[in-house]
Amino acid sequence: MLLKVPSVDWTDQIVYVVDDDESLSDFDDEPDFSEYMWMENEEEFDKNELQRLEEEEIMQECFEAMIEDELEEQINEWEKAKTEEQNTALSALPKSQCNIEKSVLNPMADEFVPLCHQMDFIAS
């Protein structure tokens, strides 16, 4: 079926082709506005949506706080294990290696640089 629709300047006409399966009675039926029924109670809908968004934001904040707490707990456990490991390593050393009081080394001395490294530095 062909339908002719006038154009803006009325001199040309636009032709629409309509399938025979579609009947003109489809255009006569009342349109389906069920999709827009939420607008009937717009204030209540807005209130519910704002409440839902606030709850989602609170849940997100709680989730982030939970992750942060878990990370802090893991860091504390790691630091505790590291400290215990260092204490164990220090206690395993013989006492003669740990005695700094009898050391003859100068703690204020410059860092030792082998002579071959000094020559490379001077050459470049």
TrEMBL record:
A Pfam short name: PAM2
Gene Ontology CC terms, in alphabetical order: cytoplasm
InterPro entries per the UniProt record, alphabetical: PAIP2-like (IPR040396), PAM2_motif (IPR009818)
Single GO biological process annotation from the record: negative regulation of translational initiation
Keyword Nucleotide-binding set for record: no
Annotated organism of origin: Drosophila hydei
Protein name from the UniProt record: Polyadenylate-binding protein-interacting protein 2
Family assignment from sequence similarity: Belongs to the PAIP2 family.
